[in-house]
Structure prediction request, 326 residues.
Amino acid sequence: MIKDTIKWGIIGCGDVTEVKSGPAFQKVENSELIAVMRRNGEKAADYAKRHHVPRWYDDADKLINDPEINAIYVATPPSSHAEYTIKAMKAGKPVYVEKPMAMNADECQQMIDVSKETGSPLFVAYYRRALPYFVKLKELIDMNAIGEVKMINLVLHWPAKPEELEGAPRWRVDPSISGGGHFHDLAAHQLDYLEFVFGQIVEVKGIAGNQNGLYAADDIVSAAFQFDSGILGTGSWCFTVPEKQTSDVTEIIGSKGRISFSFFSNTVLHVETETMVENFNIPHPEHVHQPLVDLVVKDLRGEGTCPSTGETGLRASRLMDQITGK
Prediction:
């Protein structure tokens, strides 16, 4: 437990830290952002200047060993998550690591083992567990707004990125850096949240393939799964559909109605029962990580509990490994 202000260092101050996460560490109560690191020193210095961060590094070890920093946010691509997380925890510093937690479930387990050995807490950036939109959705399920849940149908169909069509795909579809492709990047959030709301998935089967050959990673995935409660689910992911076929809809079917919502595209929860139809529009905060970072800080100070830990992060990675046969 840290009784003083949580003083953060960020390893990997790239795009995700510009708005989604980085400013949250400065805005949460009892939290400060002390330093950032990027291998490109000029970019690290530029980030620090623009975001009013006291200092910057181009060497992760120097940031980890900075005596003023008492917690680390690892925001690099997944290929280095385990390395930096383990180093930080062995230095006695809690870690908040980006998702997916690591390249695969085996690496996740190694990180958890070091967390237990060192006593350094480990949290994973599955921030949907704390976003108001998704908190409301969980409340609706918990209050049986649509009765007993029977089935969940998940569809995420997106067109290929322009750079992928031009033959210059980015690191997220390079399995040697990301551990997979768009499925691993996006389904990680979905599977983690579904387990948060409905409990553990105890059986899963999947098929994954690469149909268009735009990059090395899978571009199409299909899965069927069952929760411990008996709820059944299906998932369909395709990342090469025509623009007009774009779809991001998850449907929860209950004994008295249904809820449909979007994981990534909008902030409207649509609820239908035999007696009512209601929409809840709950916009996301400017810094989507902030509600979860607030819970991490409270957890580290002994003032609350963060719901996204190494153990829960491992489960999402294991499910993706099982679905894709990795």
In short: The longest strand covers residues 149-157. Residues 97 and 206 are 27 Å apart (CA to CA).
